[in-house]
Amino acid sequence: MRRRLRPRDLASRAVSALRARPSLTDCAFLVAAAVLSAVLYVGGLGFHGDDWGYFAELSEPQDRSLPGLVEGLYERDVPLQQRPVQLAYVATTYFVFGLHPLGYHVVGAAMLIVIALLLYGIVRELGQRRVFAVSIALLYVLLPNYTGARLWFGAHTAVLSVVFLVLSAYAALRALRSDRLFLPWLALGAAAVVASGMAYEVTLPVFMVVLALVVLRSSGTSAAGLRSALGSRRVIAVIASDVVALGFVFAFKAYVTQRVGIDEPYLEYLARVARGTVQVNFGAYGVGIPYIVWWIAAHAPSARVFALAGVVGSVAGAYLAWLAPTVRAELRATSARYVIAGLLVFATGYAIFLVPTLVAFESAGRENRVGTAAAIGVAIVYTGVLAGAASLFTRLGGPRVAFGTLAGLLCAAAFVITNTQARFWVGAYEKQREIDSRIASDVEALPHDGVLILDGVCLQRGGAWILTGARDLTGLLRLRHGREEIKAAAISRPVLIDSDGIRIKAFNDVAFFPYDGNLLVYNYRRRATYRLRRQADAEAYFTSRQFRPERDCPTVFAWGLSGG
């Protein structure tokens, strides 16, 4: 009869396994760090913006099976037809979780764990030290540069596209050294290329870096090695499969994309893109990090956030110091290589915007989701900077302690900023639910096929949108109150009053609502409802307001920084 293992025996075996395989220790550390990075906020996040529009569309199909939901969403949402993987992701998560936000955001946090582990695997496949693999993966998970994608379900597919990006890179590198599983790794890599591009476009140019890594891994840095690699059938097969996959994605995007086009001169557009990417990633979240942490301590402190940041930073610093090399020359050489490589990844992470399209850059808010892929390059650059800075220290423990200390401080600061932004998103969702509750109690005759205009409340909190204007409020009212034909909007910009109706702008769209007995304005502050039957009613209401969101509410949040 086999002896039952006691918990102490199981723990002893686990420790022995970790010691025997250091990579398992590193991966366990990364998983723990990723979990801690989300544990304070994941249970409080909710739905915003397009989320409610998606859910309203998904509530309409009669066929409630997963294929029925996918088909129904495809028929009703033209923009999602351009991103089939996003469409499938939205439909699948809705099929599993319904209107319960926790599941959605647990999946979002889990994707960050997958990215961290794959990034670690890629760097190790390239023959780099454990310390640098852990540093890059850890910084990517903690950095606040793409919080719009990690905190907003509607942008989760930006994170999903990075999952497939790093999966493709890892599969390609594994295919180079695998004999028995060469074809499965090859197929997995090509499929991941397609899935990434079909989820979100920002990763597409980064695949050029993946192809360069395939050649570099096979050839080294010598000319003879390069000639040998380019003549290798294995290398050619990996490159060809990824190029074919990329070609398929680009052809599909060229056929279906509808969002390309700008109203500004192209050179001015390029200058704005270059300025915005640098300001956010190396301005606000580079040299501006100490200021932002100070701003948070002064204006939005949280004992729990700062305490857990101290734990994460201390443990991360100690772990990286334990792994760090002691040879200063090695750190200097590594620093230069990583900074250059990181800048290349960073540039390709934004290169999709060389094609003119509507894009904005902000350090805090949903728009920073466009930096989800480029943030990998930021993590590589910062690892190189840490290595270079550590190489300057000769005393007080030398470069090893310096690397760990600097990395720990950066991790703690990133944790504070990311979790503070998460607190803003949690607060925005709580405010949204309060608004919904007030509408339910104050508006007695919510029309089935009328219009409800929300006024008297700020729609943004710390970069997190409580409501964005039209699509989300319409979907929310349809789902929460059973008003299937109702239309809605929220005022955040000046309202244009015409003789036949009012026009309300939300982001780049303008909605027109004709005067009617069922055109209602709900003023959140007054807790009163007004009917706009004619132009005189509209003029009387809008001139009587003392609090005006278009005047009294901030439209941009950037930690008090300009251009951020």
Distance between the termini: 67 Å
Oligomer: single chain
Our Rg estimate from Cα atoms comes to 26 Å
Global mean pLDDT: 90
- Give the helix/strand class: alpha/beta
Tell me roughly what share of residues is in helical segments. 55-70%
Q: Approximately what portion of the residues adopt beta-strand conformation?
A: 5-15%
Widest sheet, order of strands: 4-1-8-9
Separate helix tally: 22
Count of the separate structural domains:
2
Number of strands: 9
Main sheet record: 4 strands, mixed
Q: Indicate the overall shape.
A: globular
Extract low-pLDDT stretches: none
Explain this structure.
With 564 residues, the chain is of the alpha/beta class. The chain has 2 domains: 27-47 and 99-426, no CATH class; 443-552, no CATH class. Helices cover 63% and strands 6% of the residues. The chain contains 22 helices and 9 strands. Strands 4-1-8-9 form a 4-stranded mixed sheet. β5 and β6 (501-506) form a beta hairpin. The protein starts with 6 loop residues before the first helix and ends in a 12-residue tail after the last helix. The model has no long low-confidence stretch (mean pLDDT 90).
